[in-house]
Design brief:
By secondary structure, the protein is an alpha/beta fold. It has helices at residues 2-5, 17-28, 59-66, 73-79, 85-106, 114-117, 139-147, 163-166, 168-180; strands spanning 10-15, 33-39, 124-130, 152-156. The protein has a 4-stranded parallel sheet with strand order 1-2-3-4, sandwiched between helices. The protein is globular, with a radius of gyration of 17 Å.
Length: 181
């Protein structure tokens, strides 16, 4: 795909499951990734601080774990469904399918050897983590950083698992500053 699109090196950003995929890509295709931003990535496991089970909980608890406070306008906008009944049904199906697809890779334990491959990453790496992440505690940020040479960690205060929703301006600014250097 990169060859077909004429892309040599790219900056790659991934959040949660997408962060795990971005890290895997950066480890496998080191020459393709210039800068890497991981936002609360999944993919590691600690018995002393397990990643929360977001599958077998109520939808309200699932929202809290994955997105944060429903009263946050950015979270509310993300959860909003189209007014058209057919479009609303399609969006619900899309969400369920996406969750089920990611779950095949993340459960029962999301550790699939990524911890051994992170050392292969050569891209400059920024790790952003919500200080109040209830899904994957922020101590995982140090675990990722310890395995990626030169990785920099920024803990985002007053943010959960989706700091790009909780603290949009701060996260966007940190990413912009990192990519523009």
């Amino acid at each position: 795909l990169f060859d077909r699109l004429g892309l040599d090196r790219v900056d790659l950003i991934g959040h949660s499951f997408g962060g795990m995929v971005a890290a895997e890509f950066a480890a496998a295709f080191r020459h393709r990734v210039r800068r890497l931003v991981l936002i609360d990535p999944l993919g590691l496991w600690r018995d002393d601080a397990p990643v929360a089970d977001y599958l077998l909980v109520s939808s309200a608890k699932q929202t809290e774990l994955l997105l944060g406070d429903r009263t946050n306008p950015a979270v509310a906008a993300k959860l909003a469904l189209p007014a058209d009944p057919q479009a609303s049904l399609q969006e619900k199906l899309r969400r369920i399918t996406a969750l089920a697809s990611a779950s095949h890779f993340l459960w029962p334990i999301p550790e699939r050897g990524l911890s051994r491959r992170l050392s292969r990453i050569r891209a400059e790496t920024l790790i952003l983590w919500g200080a109040d992440d209830k899904l994957a505690p922020s101590l995982y940020a140090a675990d990722f950083a310890a395995r990626i040479a030169g990785a920099r960690v920024e803990i985002v205060p007053d943010a959960g698992h989706s700091p790009q929703l909780d603290q949009r301006a701060q996260v966007a600014g940190a990413i912009r500053d990192f990519l523009d250097r």
